[in-house]
Protein: CHAT domain-containing protein
Amino acid sequence: MAKSSFPIEYSHNLPHSDRMSTLSQSAIAKTVDPDSADSIFQQALEWYQQGTVAGFEQAIPLLKTAYQLYQEQGQMQQSALSGLLLGIIYKNLGQLEPSLEYVQEALAFYEQSADRVGMADSLNQMGLIYQVQADMDRALDAYRLALDLYQQVGDTGGEAYTFNNIGVVYDRLGQYQQALDYYNRALPLWRDVEDGYGEATTLNNIGVIYDHLGEYDQSLQAYEKALLTYRTVKDRLGMARTLNNMGLYYDAVELPQQALTYYERALPLWQEVGDRPGEASTHNNIGYVYANRGEWQEALSYYQQALPLWEEVGDRKGKASTLNNMGYVYANQGKPEQALEYYQQALSIRQAIGDRPKEALSLYRIAQVQQEQGQLEGALETLKPAIAIIEDLRIKVASQELRTSFFASKQDYYEFYIDLLMQLHQQFPQQGYDAQALQVSEQARARSLLDILAEAQGDVSAGVNPTLLEQKKKLQQQLSLQEERRIQILSRSHIQREAQEIEETIKTLLDQYRAVQALIRVSSPRYAALTQPQPLTLEEIQTQVLDEETLLLEYFLGKERSYLWLVSSTGIKSYELPGRETLEQSARDFRDALTIPIQRIRRKVMEKTAFALSEQILGPVAEELGDKRLAIAAHGALQYVPFAALAVPDLPEYTPLIAHHELVNLPSASTVAILRRETQGRSRAPKTLAVLADPVFGQNDGRVSSTSRGKAQPLPPDLERSAKESGVLFDRLPYTQQEAESILALVPTPERLEGFGFRANRELAISQELSQYQIIHFATHGLLNSTNPALSGLVFSLVNPDGEPLNGFLRLHDIFNLNLPSELVVLSACETGLGQNIKGEGLIGLTRGFMYAGSPRLIVSLWSVDDQATAKLMIDFYQTLLKEGKPPSQALREAQLKMWETNQWWQPYYWAAFTLQGEWIDYSTSRNDG
Structure:
């Protein structure tokens, strides 16, 4: 039985949420009489504060005695306090019935005495009990009542405490954006009251959310901050919790030995303080490590230790986790019936307690077993509700970045879904399963791009609290200031250290900026009214996207099998291709061969690898292609492939694919449809062409005044190298002005904008002036940040004529704020078509920013291009586009063929990097003249 690549589920320890504001503020003092109620209470409190099971058990009889004495003496305030503490201790021991009874009695007293802090504390404890019982509605009701009371009396610590607890509930419900929002509201309040323990608790919980969303590096950062504080205050419970969760991080990034080390550090701490849920959680997670190694019996032994601990404390969520994991072990041991039994038990619990993310996981696991048993139709019906849950959870994450990472973490569901449908297609080829698989492929790719393109059609800031909009504006200004600092360090020493500090500051500001954007979306009436765009069906692709002259080639790379769908306006054919690893290696070999420095070797190796990859991904459909335009929705490593340079299959000598076909690249077919809807009926810009080219990057440029150049001291070679690596020093591109002048000569003076040299600056790039032009051409350096796409961008003039530094960086987050209702944007720069490759989303980079800003099509590059060759390509492209009136995709093809046919520029390295992304219909015939 094949082992699934989906990670085995692990359980988080419940985020800590206890707070005893009433107890910590208690003025009870020891008295001389050791038998007095106050003295007995104090002894109980000391036992409680040890945080161990033994301490809790010692405290209970003392508290009961104090409770009774206080009642007999009429000290009802202290009696209620004793009862509340008894409730907390019983909850910690997993004895929920007596816990709830004592807390309810305390609440009744506080209500009679109108003690709002006592009422709030009691309501919080009730909320915690309801949480363990998985009664989330009642937990939320209790917390909201408590929050209102804390706010009435101005108890900032209590407010932070309750925000944290509400976040825990939303975490348990799988509503991660809401959970994160509440934790982020708690965090500054903890800092206001200088409560390090509370701050650490919330930081730990934030780490849990980032883990759920697949943002593993951010989760580790939060855990490390939390652990540092817990160590400072010597909180063993907090340390255990955080060490456990840090183990989860190392599991997620596939460093199992480090994960095991952290779990083994957490386990004795749980046992020392007597936290059975925590101990169960870590036993469960250690089992996860062994299961991932295929050490099934060792994994089972740890799961079997966890299970009775979950049962002892009545934690059904944890019990379901371990049951599900045991099912996974049995499935991999070739025991499907036992696996199904355990999966079904886990599923029943999860459905009962409303744990929707894990309900989806159990359904997924059951479907896998059904597939292995040959029950393909049953597996399909089991899987469909799991996909529906994932889709619903995805929509509820308002932050686009977090939504993207969450969706990336669920891609195995979609891969399995596609594989299942294609297996059914093989058995029943006439029942349309391949069309369903194509729709799932669309469902699994570029969804965030689809979302933001729909969002671009309406101003989501309308009706939003002006304070949020002002926050967004200030953060944009701060980001701009940090970019200016980057330029100012050029003439200083210690450039690397300062550049790193600035990068850290920018990253922090970007996180804040994204958080504000998410809040704007959540609070926007227009955003709430937006209908979430749905991926297209086969029929919709055929009627809304394709025409008689265009074929769609959509790829999906799977672990064991990959697939290709060939779709025309009237039909569909599907093909099975080799697995992901094989295709990725071929793609890497081909791309690497394009850049081998020795020309003779390059040609031989390039042609060999071009034929090899072409045979794999185009060979099966070669006879179907004719001379049609090919719209290519690539996937995985194929997104880095210049399809134009692939060999035409079945020819004896190398001929590039571009010789037979016009080519267009798509994030997905569905994005084309939404781009068309966005631009339909839009008035065209009144002028033709704006060109920004040949910026001035430094004081050593000959265009800077001689006085200023004399003041600039050249950097030592090592610092110059560091400056370039840090993205603050660039060489001039001498051919870009020649390129720009030749292009502009094709357009009458009133119809064009010339931005050369110092005028090729950021201020012009973000100005409304550019919105007056149908074509925007940028000829400059590009910046690729594959780790943080928001920092990718274009570079404009970094100094003014006097040599004074300017912010010349146009980052992706800036591009999203542009208004460019152009017909075409050309990014004549290096690597402008690349970005961070995220599972389920594709390459996140400049393309989506300019599409959001209003351009339905772009020409971008896949690697660091040659300056002179690019100038020639662009001049030929614009000659065909502007003088002959051909559409962009055809004009690009003819320019590339012209270079291939020359002795000097035949190598694909010089011309194949540039691709057309997005819409291909000729804008000159489809636009509205207004």
Observations:
- The CA atoms of residues 364 and 882 lie 54 Å apart.
